[in-house]
Amino acid sequence: MNATIGLAGHTYLTYLATALQVLAVIVGAPFIVGGMRQVRARLEGRAGGGIGQPWRDLHKQLRKQQVTPQGTTVVFGFAPAVVAGTALLIAAILPLIALGSPLDPAADLFGVVGLLFLGTVALTLAGLDTGTAFGGMGSSREITIAALVEPTILLAVFALSVPGRSANLAAIVSATADNPGHLVSPGSLLAFVALAIVIIAETGRLPVDNPSTHLELTMIHEAMVLEYAGPRLALVEWASGMRLTVLLGLLANLFLPWGVAGADPSVLAILIGFVAITVKVAVLAGLLAAGEVFIAKLRYFRIPELLAGSFLLALLAVTASYFFATPTN
Amino acid sequence: MSLLLLVPIGAPLVAAALAAVLGWRRLTSSVTVLAALCILISGVILGFNHGSGVRFAIANLFRADALSITMLIVIGTVGTLATWASIGYIDAELTHGHTDARGAKLYGVLVPIFLAAMASAVLANNIGVMWVAIEATTVATAFLVGHRRTRAALEATWKYVVICSVGIALAFLGTVLLYFASLHAGASSGDALNIDVLLAHASQLDPAVTRLAAGLLLLGYGAKAGLVPFHTWLADAHSQAPAPVSALMSGVLLSVAFYALLRVKSVVDLAVGTGFLRTGLIIVGLLTLLIAASLLVVQTDFKRMLAYSSMENMGLVAVAAAAGTKLAIAALLLHVLAHGIAKTLVFLGSGQLQAAHDSTRISDVTGVLARSRMVGVTFLVGLAILLGLPPFAMFASELSISRALAGAGLEWVLGAALLFVVIAFAALVRNGSRMLLGPPDAGSPAITVPRSVGAALVTGVILSLVLGLTVGPLLELFQTAATLLGGTR
Amino acid sequence: MTQATYNGVLNLAAGAFLLAAVLIVWRRELRAIVGLLAWQGIALAAIPLTEGIYKHDAALIVVGVIVLLLRAVALPLLLIRAVGTEPHERRESTPLVNTTTSLLITAGLTVLAYAVTRPIIALDPSPATRAVPATFAVILIAVFVMVSRRRALSQAVGFMMLDNGIAATAFLITAGVPLIVELGASLDVMFAVLVLGLLTGHMRRTFGGTDLDQLRELRG
Questions:
Q1: I want to staple B372 with a disulfide (CB 3.0 to 4.6 A). Which of A211, A266, B447, C208 is the partner?
Q2: At what angle do helices B393-407 and B411-436 cross, to 10 degrees?
Q3: Model confidence over B23-82: pLDDT tens digits?
Q4: Which residues of A are less than 8 Å from C133 in CB distance?
Q5: Within the 292-311 window of chain A, which residues sit less than 8 Å (CB to CB) from chain C?
């Protein structure tokens, strides 16, 4: 595949596309979270709070007083900003609306995984920083899961990159768009399953972690952020929503790349891309929420089994992609 | 003449069919003995007529060269002795209520099928047919091992079936890979697995694939031959099976499995050179000797002791095959024949001891020589053969194997092997003398020997004496077989 | 059938084959494991069927149908019958190696299989032989399953998987070994499973259960 996407010569439209991408993620993330909650509520027979409820919560929290527990350091203070910052950066890098992002030379999959991990580590350290029992427990659980999740994401996306022979995410997406037949190969299918499992684990959804639980001993992500309040809490919640949105967007565009604007888009293509990604992410989020209604949370010691299995699937995906290369490649 | 090749397979099958229809009775058990005798006689006739050539039958599906004729003679001899003894053994079991009519009928059907399968394996020209035959022996002996229906017998059967099936499956994979290599070396798909075709194309077989195939075949057929690492079934299966079946399995089945390895070796050595399988067989053989000798020292059960002695002898045979010279292979074949007869003697004797004492613990059995001259003397003779004492044949064979190892430049292997053999020797002497010599304990039960068992024992002793004093016409047969296997010097 | 479809279906079959093996290592319920074995049998049968359709070889198609009936229907049925009706019999007791470690070992075995089968692909780089590493991996995984399980039935499933893997390798490499050998192999598999099934029944009557850890009498 050619690697000429993203070289010098970006038109201002690609900048527009990237800005639109970031803005969409910023504004849309709480709507995605709210939509998921609404789908769950409706399926469970409740009325639900409406799609806009997370925005209303954010608004309320932003107006509250900033409270910092005694004994915490700058880590506690900066962690929300780091998480939000990395999420925004990922939103700018990923080929969500258009392929030719200005950050493209840095946009290979290792960079994205590194940024994800940076956000996770920041929040983990913040949980430890509080010095409480629940914070420490949440942090240790989160890092155990991250240790198994990060290699799996790497392997799964790497498996997808083998047919295109480039680890650049835009190249992978356009390669898949050009050859849809690759999607039905064993490598892609296995990579899809593995990636789905680790996205669920990374973003703290059922069956790995219940985001709406109030039982502290079962928490993983929520336990780390128990001590946050006010604007910092708003930032943390928002960043979690953004991470969920960008990961769903990544999944959507890796496996359903149609509608993504090319390297040199027109305004119409950008609009089509925007609508396409919104629809895809919304549908995926709805399916995820609907699935959650039927699953129970796994006991914590069973989670490494699930993640080891997804790691194995990702490894199989890589080997399958390498060794099942067809002569008509 | 080529029809003679079918007799060793057809005769036992006829006996099996008869037993299936009529059940266990004097007629069917005698027909089985006759069938085993047919195997022996056809082997002898073929031996007189073979020259140094190879005889084929039925579209090159079967072959009879010096090596297969040797194995036929081994199968025939041990088979005749064992089936002869079975008559009295099973009748005694029926009288004592250890088995019922159904069990006896099953025995009567499975033993000749077992003999037919072994005969097919040594007469097959196609490696695939050889594989099918050896797998058939596993299936046939599975229920024979569990004949007694005790907890221990069930456990032994499970282990035997599972481990040997894994081994035979690996051997199948090796056979498939060899077929693959043979196809790519230019053989036609119909006879790519025929031994003569493989030998002809051996120099063109892809070395890497052949090495992979050889490794798998060594592991797989080694499992059936009781070699490390798939050896753990041997002691259990051979000790729990009824005595004549133990004699057949220890005396012949292990050797037939090793025969398969020898056939493979002749092809692989031409394809990748002698180094690969020589190293493999040395490692496997020495490890088998080590484990067998160590476990012989701590034995408390005499049937398991005899089973480990079989394992030790198979290890020695593997080491001899590793040397690969003419002398080594000829000595190996003599060793196999002598070992078969010796194991028959000791296992039949131990069967009677087990029947008398209803236990197989060494400590329970004392003063056998004083109590029963028949069992005592034949057990003593059998042990003497196994220990490699003159004037019996295993003395000559072990001496020749040592000379062959030294001549092939494997002195250190010889040293290690001799060390393990000496350890085994000491263990056998200690346990044997404890059982045979000295006065019997008070209250020891009388040892009865059914007539057919006694007849088989006496015949076996006479055969071993004859074999020990003169190898006779068999020597030329062994040497031809050794040349056929590509032995040099 | 075009070359591309042939490649795709063959790859998919081999991939599903390996995936079924991985899931057998993962799951613990005996009924689920036997069901996965049936799925693996279907994936196995797809290989000779695809080859037969692509090469217009009727014999291969017949062999494929026989394999489908035998390994996807008959043998799993035999095994299911041997699963006991007690609830405590339905599940595998804790295997000797815990699930997470088993899965990581399986990953290692897969990589090993790819390394070991390189000479085979080098000798004949056709689309069929390129799928051999997957089936070889299933063979290694099957041996691992047999070694690390406690229930007699799980060992029997492991043995069936071993046989499936070897048959798949044979089909891929050579489009079937000579018919007589394949027939002999299938019959022997049938006998072996019958024997294992009967033995499991015996075991339950004699030992009151099929936990292999109870087979401890013969030692030394």
A1: B447
A2: 160
A3: 888 888 889 999 999 999 988 888 887 766 677 766 677 888 888 889 999 999 999 999
A4: 319, 323
A5: 304-305, 308-309, 311
A329 pLDDT higher than 80: no
User: Which chain C residues touch A325 with a CB distance below 8 Å?
Assistant: 130
Give how far Cα B478 sits from Cα of B268, B347, B385, Å. Answer: 21, 26, 20
Contact at 8 Å (CB) between B310 and B253? no
Neighbors of chain A with 3 or more C-beta pairs under 8 Å: C
Q: Residues of C36-70 as b/e, b for ≥16 C-beta within 10 angstroms?
A: bbbbbbbbbbbbbbbbbbbeeeeebbebbeebbeb
Contact A181 C8 (CB under 8 A): yes
Residues of A in contact with C7 (CB under 8 A): 324, 326-328
Chains B and C touching, counted as 3 or more CB pairs less than 8 Å apart: yes
Calculate the alpha carbon distances from A87 to A30, B21, B391 in Å.
Answer: 14, 81, 89
Q: What is the ipTM of this complex?
A: 0.87
Q: What are the structure tokens assigned to A128, written together?
A: 């430890």
- CA–CA distance, A108 with A115 (Å, rounded to integer): 11
Closest residue of C to A307, CA-based? C100
Give CA–CA dist B129/B125, Å, rounded. 8
Q: What is the mean pLDDT of residues B355-360?
A: 85
Domain boundaries, chain B: 2-484
Residue B148 pLDDT more than 90?
no
In whole angstroms, what is the distance from residue A144 CA to residue A121 CA? Answer: 11
Minimal-distance CA residue of chain B relative to C184? B132
Cis peptide before B12 (omega within 30 of 0): no
Compare all CA atoms of chain C with the CA of A304 and give the residue at the minimum distance. Answer: C100
pTM of the predicted model as reported, rounded to 2 decimal places: 0.83
The values of phi and psi at residue C211, to 5°, are -75, 120
- Residue that the structure tokens 């091992």 belong to: B145
pLDDT of the residue at A5: 44
pLDDT(A327) > 50:
no
Taking 60 as the threshold, does the pLDDT of residue B111 lie above it?
A: yes
Neighbour count for residue B446 (Cβ, 10 Å): 7
